[in-house]
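Final paragraph of the annual report: two paired records, presented back to back.
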Amino acid sequence: MAKTKNGKNKRLSTLIFAESILIAYVCYAAFFMVKLADVFAPSFAAQHIFPLIIFTLFIVLSQLAVGLYEPKLRETFRGIIRRIFVAQGLAFFAMAVFTELFLTHVLIHSYYLVVCILMTILSCSLFRFFVIRFGALGLAQTRIVILGAGERASVIENRMRRASDRKGFELIGFIPIPGDNIELGVKKEPILHVNIDDSFKEFIAENDIDEIVIAADQRRGTLPIEVLFDCRLQGTQITDLLDFMERETGQILVNLMYPSWLIYSGGFNSQNYVRQISDYTLNFCLASLVLFFVWPFMLLTALAIYLDDGRKTGASIFYKQIRVGKDGENFGIYKFRSMGVDAEKNGAQWASKNDARVTRIGGFIRKYRLDELPQLYNVFRGDMSFVGPRPERPEFVEQLNKEVPFYNQRHNVKPGLAGWAQLNYPYGASVKDAMEKLKFDLYYVKHQSFLLDILVLIRTVEVVLFGKGQ
């Protein structure tokens, strides 16, 4: 236990030291940024070294005050950004007062503090992003145990087998409890035979466990509520399996979801009128910008389709299809035609990988997502957003609503050109695939935000540039 705590303290000390160096450099660089904006601003000199040290100290202490150096901080990246903003606000106030009282004899430009704070917010946010994203310094890792070793707990074993899936935590083991379906349970993970009584608290303390994940097959009458309550009071995080998987994998396990979790779970914010207006304005501007750059590719794509088979068959280069949009309302989606003219002579069919109905040009434009470009028109009309669940056909939606639980909830937001599910799940053409994609779609519906949209768009650019589309 002492060894583990010493390791954590060392990692935190390394974080504080690294951020202190970063902040000091930013405070130093701010002098030159101000100088670029105003040639009459004072240049960095020896008299500025003491203020630079004080400013760095204020910022680090402010970040300490808002919990950014808390060993057991379990916060989303958005939450960390909010804390960074609050910390910089506190630091700005302290620095302004200190400068006014004690540094009146030092020449500091009036814009310096503002530039310094803005640069610090940006640099600390980027630094924390890479620390969390790549598990640098081991700060993102928490030590966890799974309470349960049956069928429900086996989801972790089956879906998080790779080391890259577990970079955010260190799994100590699974603890079987009464009611677990052992036959369909955990097979290859460490099983901990620990009594769930008062001694369990000692086990948690001795092994420095940060989090207990509840993954019991049967909860009623089997969970040690009083023991878990005591552990929670001592600072150990208690997390439901659904919340744990959502946090670590970016998906919601629809097949394990129960209505009460959905009701009490955070997120699923409704889109109010102001947000709808701002979303449309942003999507309109983004669609205009994209259209400005891609219209030559659209012309070339249209010409290629015409020369490939449009000239012989007289078929249109475009393809209009009815899809289901927000609140279940149907709309017409527009795409460049990538299949033959008789592709659906036998009725609606799932598109599949290496689909024989796809033309020679169709295979290329689907790979690089060029067939989706006419949907910019749908964005202009307000039928779609740039980011959201991909719209599905009414025939399939009717079937999936019957066979996939909570499927209709993906229609709570506008469909999009790019989606979280498309980035995280390979091409699918079945009810089972629809279930898997829904796990990511519901995650997006629950966590929709500007930052998540930016992440999806950035990763979609990678898909387009490197031909990873389906």
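The closing record of the year follows.
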Amino acid sequence: MNEYDVVVIGGGAAGLSAALVLTRARRHVAVVDSGAPRNAPAREMHGFLSRDGLPPAELLRLGREEVAGYGGDIVAGLVTDVRRVEGAAPRFEVRLEDGDVLRARRILVASGLRDELPDIPGVSERWGRDLLHCPYCHGYEVRDQPLGVIGATAEAVQHAQLVRQWSHDVVLFLDAGPIAPDVREALVARAIGVVDGPVTRLVVEDDQLTGVELADGRVVRRTAVFVRPRMVPDNRVLTGLGCTVGDNGWVAADATGRTSVAGVWVAGNVADPRAQVITAAGEGSAAAIAINADLVDEDVATALHDYRRTN
């Protein structure tokens, strides 16, 4: 078995940032990553100071190199189970799909979330390219273009009002039903087009989104479309350990990412669906500092116990 101070589950911005802080604190750290980052379809990431426009895969490559440079282990694999080891202090066994077992004093879960997209032909193929979610991440790149937003929920309407910041030509496709008259009036007041009727597919020509097709055969020309996917946290490890889940369906944690289970922290999208790459990195750093402080407390208690026993 491999013994670590901390095992980080998830090698995205949150997990690698935490590992960097912990390895620089001279902790023995392993980062276990399945190699399926949420932002893999995106060509570039944005809003990360000094790294704006960098491909997401390049950020992760650089992060892995930095962590490894300080002695951290990068483990390619899928965590299937985490078990608490009996004892006074928190101890864990992390089991991997290939049968390996890692032992850790503390656990940081940074496994992210998955986006459940609308069941519309073309959506999954264009995801992260010209079918987008976050206007702060990609709005500037499609500024002043004919844009669309699909959905009839309050969140979709809010999204349309937000996307309007980047273009004067925005259309909201109400594929799931009508909206209240006052809500429609607010859209019209900002010159946001409203199209009623189910959406049947995204129209793509020469590997470029060109429009949105409706059930009645109409095609509304658009060059990029935004949706609000349903975000589902990859929190099976956390729920398996018995971490408290809040009323919102996400694992509850304090400002440092400490969960209700001693020795277990979270960072990034697994607990914070709104976290962008730079936010997730910051959360990983904050969690790492808290974890190291917790380990120091345990180290002091152990040293005192040993000292008093021999003096």
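The first strand starts at residue 2 and ends at 9. This concludes the annual technical report; the extension proposal builds directly on these records.
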